[in-house]
Design brief:
disordered C terminus, alpha+beta
Length: 690
């Protein structure tokens, strides 16, 4: 195949809008499958993972190649749930055009709004689905889309609507043909007389929109006030490519109404890869370069998705330039490794079919590329370029994870690493301070799915908990104390004697100084005293959390020429610390983070109130480039555990936020007792006493 025989589309939209069913309908109508699968029955091509079948939702990006009129349409089905937005970004990266799928009775959904924003300048069209269901209203949905997205929204269908607002047929304005559902299938019919005038008016609008994209077409339209179907398609294709036109179609994925027209429209209007502008990239020295979609150029491909399961590991690639064959060796610009390729495949859901090559503009998979990860560029070693990856959002929801059965920690870590190959949008951190493994993602459903996959794929039963907050301790007063360690055991004893001053300083450092005169403590023992202070400061006296902002000058002391040793002076320093700190006004410090919450203007008051309720301080508010308001605040990390869920519910998914640690502040005294009690329950002092 060549690039002109391929179209790549990604299905986007809110959960439940029918994206997976639409992909299934396209496959079934073109003979790609021999039965029409249903999401509720768990037998669709694109939802094949056990978790997808159990939950009746899409979780991962899936590929469904559709053969229509000798053209291969790579349909990328993406999840609608916001927890899996990373899969959506991967799909957008690989496709030339997006199809926003909207439910006719849902109007303008939040998922459609978010998808529109995520697309940036990517070409798009809209398919209003489920128009034949109870309470569906095509016109209301179309008006909402037009009102939100403006003049770019251009209908290329006229719906045939019955008295209950259900769409029973459609008129293809581009080809001036009508279709209706008969015997459960879509069939061509005559254009109803009662909407003939409306059809003519809409066709005239469509011709005008097409003419506006090309000067030659504009001249012809003004001369004759008529354009052929081919000329309309030419103009619309240019408009789709530059983003000035977003064609609107409608129908029903279940009955098949409008699905054939959608595929024909993809052939007519979706630009092929070689018609798209060159991609921004970097060369081997980090300089900006452009990569043209050239079928005969040096190979360059982006790994946009990794599938790693019981069937093996597949790296899904979109070939941007040149072609890929199984006997090639390609350079990975991320790792610096040269990878010898092996078997190449096309994927259809979980099924794979081996192929000899993947041409420019096509999507395929390379098997067993263990060192290659999502976002990597594979290119010709003689023409090194690094293509742009996927701009995944930072994880904002964290849970501590641990195996229910002791001894399975290594198995848990291995399982999470394997799952991270498939889904790079979550992170895993082993927090040495809190002794917890913390997994962070986009939301509770994503984390819950990970736990389920750990059990089914890797046999690890895991449990989730609230991540512990890494508190600190600090003193407020200056205190001098003696630490004297003396032990006689027959033979050599142990003797160390120090006077140390403990004083608070700014920052989080532990500083040691020697202000000793007259050799009362020999210099060779100074490092031991410092070591003792630093070891002691690892545990505060209130709750066993690390001490910060402490200066400890050694003032005086004494030694024994035989019994003094490094160990004795370490112990002496620790005794001085234990004697001084309880009298130095110790306090607990809690970590504070900087919050940037992007929310609709209507929700700013609620967000500010919530920040205050969570002991935070609102610093200000500014508009962002997407029309949302950014509420800036500082909030204790301990109060932010469920903020992701709160914000999503408040804004119906429109809002998002970033949250980063900035500093430590004194914990309010009324909360100290609770934190100290929790620390004792966790055994924070056990290590110190040991």
């Amino acid at each position: 195949m060549s690039a002109k025989d391929i179209r790549n589309i990604v299905l986007l939209g809110h959960g439940g809008s029918g994206k997976t069913t639409l992909a299934e309908s396209m496959l079934f109508m073109t003979g790609g499958t021999d039965r029409f699968g249903k999401v509720t029955d768990g037998n669709t091509t694109c939802d094949y993972d056990a978790e997808e079948i159990k939950r009746n939702i899409s979780i991962s990006l899936a590929v469904a190649p559709v053969k229509y009129k000798n053209v291969k349409i790579n349909v990328l089905d993406t999840p609608g749930n916001f927890d899996f937005a990373g899969e959506v970004l991967s799909g957008i990266r690989a496709a030339e055009c997006a199809v926003l799928v909207c439910g006719a009775k849902d109007g303008l959904s939040v998922g459609a709004e978010r998808a529109w924003k995520m697309l940036g300048n990517k070409p798009r069209m809209i398919f209003i689905n489920r128009t034949d269901e109870e309470n569906s209203d095509y016109n209301a949905c179309f008006d909402a889309l037009k009102g939100k997205f403006g003049t770019a929204v251009a209908p290329i269908v006229a719906p045939i609507i019955d008295g209950s607002k259900k769409v029973t047929g459609i008129v293809d304005l581009l080809h001036n043909k009508a279709y209706e559902v008969k015997g459960g299938k879509a069939a061509e019919c005559a254009i109803p007389a009662d909407i003939a005038d409306e059809v003519e008016a809409l066709r005239a609008e469509l011709m005008e929109a097409a003419a506006g994209a090309d000067e030659e077409l504009m001249e012809k339209f003004f001369e004759t006030m008529e354009l052929s179907a081919e000329e309309i398609a030419k103009g619309l294709k240019l408009g789709v490519r530059d983003g000035s036109v977003a064609p609107v179609l409608c129908g029903s994925a279940i009955s098949g109404l409008g699905v054939d027209m959608l595929m024909q429209t993809v052939l007519d209007l979706v630009p092929v890869a070689t018609d798209m502008p060159a991609e921004a990239a970097q060369d081997d020295d980090g300089n900006a370069v452009e990569v043209a979609h050239d079928e005969n150029g040096a190979t360059a491909a982006i790994v946009f998705k990794t599938v790693s399961d019981q069937y093996g590991k597949f790296s899904l690639v979109k070939v941007v330039r040149g072609k890929i064959t199984g006997d090639m060796s390609l350079y990975d610009t991320t790792t610096g490794n040269t990878e010898k390729l092996g078997r190449l495949y096309t994927l259809k859901g979980k099924k794979n079919e081996e192929v000899k090559e993947i041409c420019c503009g096509d999507i395929g998979a390379i098997a067993k590329m263990d060192r290659v990860k999502t976002g990597d560029t594979l290119c010709d070693p003689k023409s090194i370029v690094k293509l742009a990856g996927m701009p995944y959002a930072e994880p904002c929801y964290s849970r501590a994870i641990a195996p229910k059965t002791r001894g399975q920690e290594e198995k848990l870590g291995t399982g999470l690493n394997r799952l991270n190959e498939e889904d790079p949008t979550f992170t895993v951190v082993n927090n040495a301070e809190t002794h917890q493994m913390v997994v962070s993602g986009a939301g509770d459903i994503q984390i819950d799915v990970l736990v389920s996959k750990l059990k089914t794929r890797f046999g690890v039963d895991a449990e989730l908990d609230t991540p512990r907050v890494p508190y600190r301790e600090k003193i407020r007063k200056t205190v001098q104390k003696q630490g004297r360690h003396k032990k006689q055991t027959g033979g050599h004893g142990q003797f160390g004697d120090v006077w140390i001053q403990f004083e608070p300083i700014e920052g989080e450092d532990i500083e040691f100084a020697e202000n000793v005169f007259g050799g009362s403590v020999p210099k060779n023992f100074f490092p031991a005293v410092e070591k003792g202070v630093r070891q002691a400061a690892e545990h505060g006296v209130l709750a066993g959390y690390p001490m910060v902002g402490l200066k400890a000058p050694l003032l005086d002391g004494s030694y024994h020429p035989v019994d003094s040793s490094e160990m004795a002076f370490i112990m002496a320093a620790k005794l001085a610390y234990k004697a001084a700190v309880p009298e130095a006004g110790p306090v607990l410090l809690e970590p504070i983070g900087s919050l940037q919450a992007h929310v609709p203007a209507d929700n700013t008051g609620d967000i500010m109130g919530e920040v205050t309720k969570r002991r935070g301080r609102v610093l200000g508010m500014n508009p962002d480039e997407d029309g949302l308001q950014v509420v800036e605040a500082e909030v204790p990390i301990a109060e932010m555990q469920d903020f992701t869920t709160f914000l999503r519910q408040l804004t119906q998914g429109r809002g998002w936020f970033t949250f980063d640690f900035v500093r430590y502040e004194t914990l309010p005294q009324m909360l100290e007792a609770k934190v100290i009690e929790q620390a004792k329950a966790l055994g924070n002092f056990a290590e110190e006493e040991a």
